[in-house]
Design brief:
single chain, six-stranded antiparallel beta sheet, two-stranded antiparallel sheet, 5 helices, 33% helix
């Protein structure tokens, strides 16, 4: 499938998380800054992953190595350094009855929260960008994969085990 067509399909799927998808399209436009505020808790949720936690899980602070790790380990991930310092957001499946055990280190943003989601072509700094873009409409991180990353990174940050590699 043509990359532009795929990105358009993904963007449409993301935009439909808004009650008015046209608002997301406007925010992604040049005038809107390239980042749309999308509501969480319907199509997806997003744990807030501090940079140090992700670096610890990846065993590296090299951005190319971190990107390779996140691509292999998770799925769609956004990076934002404007609000909370360096923060990664993994777009994760909504699940009924989801019990997220990492609220202290990686708070789960869901119903009532919004996430700045970059336009599909924003794939490098500055600002908010896709570290790992979705591969297709509906592509999200598995809860178990994000849980494993947080567990590994948390243990490494706390010094319970050395960084991998």
């Amino acid at each position: 499938m043509d990359t532009r067509l795929r990105d358009s399909d993904i963007s449409e799927w993301l935009a439909r998380s808004q009650q008015e998808p046209a608002q997301a399209w406007h925010e992604w436009s040049t005038d809107g800054g390239g980042v749309a505020l999308l509501p969480l808790g319907h199509r997806f949720v997003a744990p807030r992953l501090p940079e140090a936690l992700v670096y610890a899980a990846a065993g590296s602070v090299d951005l190319q190595e971190v990107t390779k790790y996140l691509t292999k380990a998770l799925g769609p991930v956004i990076f934002d350094n404007r609000a909370m310092g360096g923060t990664y957001y993994a777009l994760m499946q909504c699940q009924d009855g989801l019990v997220w055990e990492h609220e202290e280190i990686a708070p789960l943003l869901g119903h009532g929260a919004y996430l700045g989601v970059p336009r599909m072509d924003r794939r490098k700094p500055p600002g908010t960008y896709w570290v790992v873009p979705p591969r297709h409409a509906g592509h999200l991180c598995e809860v178990s994969a994000v849980d494993a990353l947080v567990t590994l990174g948390s243990a490494a940050v706390q010094g319970a085990e050395p960084w991998p590699r």
